[in-house]
């Protein structure tokens, strides 16, 4: 869906799309570009990025906080997997095993980090270890993790994700209508928006 909106954005730049819907299409395309860029930088899925975006908005933080945490986590986990004993001990204290480190699964490690920093019986101690591992930015990351732990990132249900997927398949049919000047896409965009906000 994001790729199709990006293609539409090119038409808007060429002045080929209908005036009344260009703003909506551009906003969809820009959002899709941002999600795609962040997913590539972080090495995670588009769905995860969207969950993080909701959590950062709710907690007053930015996606750069999460992207930086992913980057640092990846670097430190590689160092620990290569034999850095101090880092291995820090990861172990946060519930991340040597096997986790060797797997290179950053999403899995980030989930365990979240569990340790939000659900630990001794949160102060976990935060101290987290600061040693990720540095001071962990203070900004904690509100995001708390928002995720509270379920903020799961705003879009699986049913709505399936509805959006079905709508994206119908997008190809609407593409021809844009080129011929039809207004049917406005209804499609409205349906897509309703699926996201439902």
Give a short overview.
This protein is mostly helical.
Question: What would you say this structure looks like, in words?
Answer:
This protein is mainly alpha-helical and 198 residues long. It has eleven helices and no strands. It has helices spanning 2-13, 22-42, 46-59, 63-81, 85-93, 98-103, 106-119, 123-134, 138-149, 158-179, 184-197. Helix 1 (2-13) crosses helix 2 (22-42). It is globular.
Chart the SSEs and their pairings.
Elements: H1 2-13, H2 22-42, H3 46-59, H4 63-81, H5 85-93, H6 98-103, H7 106-119, H8 123-134, H9 138-149, H10 158-179, H11 184-197
Helix pairs in contact: 1-2, 2-3, 3-9, 4-5, 4-7, 5-8, 7-8, 7-9, 10-11
Descriptors:
198 residues; mainly alpha; 78% helix; globular
Mean pLDDT level: 76
Unreliably modeled segments: 178-183
Shape verdict: globular
What is the string of SSEs from the N terminus onward?
HHHHHHHHHHH
What integer value in Å does the Rg equal?
A: 21 Å
Question: What's the helical proportion of residues?
Answer: over 70%
DSSP helical segment count: 11
Q: How far is the first residue's CA from the last residue's CA?
A: 18 Å
* Beta-strand percentage range: under 5%
Structural class: mainly alpha
Strands, total number: 0
Main sheet specs: none
